[in-house]
């Protein structure tokens, strides 16, 4: 298993639901119609997860979490798709972190589809923002 996947799995296990303020207006849009992320398309969050489970381009990655399941795709790993489990308040939700190189630097972009209550979706979004900040810091510090 790659160090990148292990680092993300560790961050997900350590993550806890956010109780911070809601996400500012303009960050998200209403989830009407299909969503595309991590190389797959789904009608909604539940369909994205079903598609991920069937996709030949994504592989399930076992992680010790009672909140999420994770998939990865690409060689080397370019995509990490994380889906909430039914016990999670922000279920159903799917998030994709895409890693890419630009100008010689490793960059990332996150997409998220959450069809739960807005407050729960906002909390999950903020949690992923914090994980992304930790991940970026680890990359810059040479920890990955």
Can you put this structure into words, describing what you see?
With 144 residues, the chain is of the alpha+beta class. It has one domain (35-140). The chain is 31% helix and 29% strand. The chain contains 3 helices and 7 strands; from the N terminus they run H-E-E-H-E-E-E-E-E-H. The protein has helices spanning 3-14, 45-54, 118-140; strands at residues 35-37, 40-42, 58-61, 68-73, 79-84, 93-102, 105-114. The strands form 2 sheets. It has a 5-stranded antiparallel beta sheet with strand order 3-4-5-6-7, with helices on both faces. Strand 4 and strand 5 form a beta hairpin. The protein is globular. The two termini are 13 Å apart.
- Structural category: alpha+beta
Count of helical stretches: 3
Largest sheet, if any?
Answer: 5 strands, antiparallel
Tell me the total number of β-strands.
7
Low-confidence stretches: 1-21
**Proportion of residues in extended strands:** 25-35%
Taking Cα atoms only, what radius of gyration do you get, to the nearest Å? 14 Å
- Helices and strands, in order, run as HEEHEEEEEH
